[in-house]
Amino acid sequence: HTPKQITDIRNFAVKNNIILQIHSEINSSLIEIDDIIRKAEKQRLQRVVKFSRQLGARCLTLHPAKPRPIT
Q1: 50: burial class by Cβ within 10 Å (0-12, 13-18, 19+)?
Q2: Which of 64, 60, 63, 61 lies closest to 31, judged by CA?
Q3: What would the 3-class secondary structure string for the chain be?
Q4: pLDDT at 66 over 70
Q5: Residue 43 φ/ψ, nearest 5 degrees
Q6: For tag attachment on the chain, is the N or C end more exposed, with fewer CB atoms within 10 Å?
Q7: In this predicted model, what pLDDT tens digit does every residue of 15-44 receive, in sequence order?
């Protein structure tokens, strides 16, 4: 999303008394066994939090997941 799009969405929500809620990806997991995957998931979640703040969202829904089995 461009900065203008984010600003437009935020302003539209404020103007129309809309409470924004962000829903993270369902397959995200911060409990991965693999350090590389866990760090990547943490970075992805940080981007979702930043995006939520930029939009002015009041709620962020997260779904913890089970780690994938090691094969």
Answers
A1: exposed
A2: 64
A3: CCHHHHHHHHHHHHHCCCCCEEECCCCCCCCCCCHHHHHHHHHHHHHHHHHHHHHCCCEEECCCCCCCCCC
A4: no
A5: -65, -40
A6: C
A7: 999 999 998 877 777 777 788 988 888 898
Residues of 9-20 as b/e, b for ≥16 C-beta within 10 angstroms? Answer: beeebeeeeeeb
* Average pLDDT score, the chain: 87
* Amino acid type, 24: S
Q: Dig out the tokens for 70 from the structure.
A: 């090691």
Residues across the chain = 71
- Return the percentage of the chain with pLDDT > 90, whole number: 49
